Amino acid sequence: MAEELKKDALVQIDYKPPKKGWMDTPVEFRHGTYIYPARAKNLKYLDLPNPREWSPTDEDWKLPENWKEIVINGMKERLDKYRSFKVYMDICVRCGACADKCQFFIGGGDPKNMPVLRAELIRSVYRGNFTAAGKILGRVNGARKLTTDVIKEWFYYFYQCTECRRCSVFCPYGIDTAEITMMGRELLTLLGVNVNWVIEPVANCYRTGNHLGIQPHALMDMFEMMLDDIKDRTGIKIEPTFNRKGAEILFITPSADYFAEPGMYTCMGYLMLFHELGLDYTWSTYASEGGNFGLFTSHEMIKRLNAKMYAEAKRLGVKWILGGECGHMWRVVHQYMGTLNGPADFLEEPVSPITGTKFENAKSTKMVHIAEFTADLIKNNKLRLDPGRNDKLRVTFHDSCNPARAMGIFEEPRYIIKNVCNNFFEMPENTTREQTFCCGGGAGLGTDEMMEMRMRGGMPRANAVQYVHDKHDVNRLTCMCAIDRATLTTLMEYWVPDVKVTGIHELVANALVMKGEKERIVDIRGEPLKEEKGGDNV
Amino acid sequence: MYNSGKIIIGLVLFIGLVTTPIWFNIGKADVKPDPSLNTPVIQQMKVKHCIESKQFMIDNHMRLLYDWRYAVVRDNMTIYKSTTGQYFTMSLETTCFHCHSNEKQFCNQCHTYANIQPYCWECHVKPAQESANGH
Amino acid sequence: MKILAAFILVLVLAAIPYAGIQYAGMTTVFGIIIPYAAVIIFIVGVVYRIVKWARSPVPFRITTTCGQEKSLPWIKQNKLDNPSGTAGVVGRMALEILCFRSLFRNTRSELRDGPRLSYGSTVWLWLAAIAFHWSFLVILIRHFRLFSQPVPHFINVLENVDGFLQIGIPTLYITDILLLAAVLYLLLRRIALPQIRYISLIADYFPLFVIFGIGLSGVLMRYFYRVNVIGVKELVMGLIAFKPHVPPDIGTLFYIHLFLIATLFAYFPFSKLMHMGGVFLSPTRNLANNNRMVRHINPWNYPVHVHTYAEYEDEFRDKMKSVGLPVEKE
Question: What distance in Å separates the CA atoms of residue C16 and residue A462, rounded to the nearest whole number?
Answer without folding.
Answer: 58
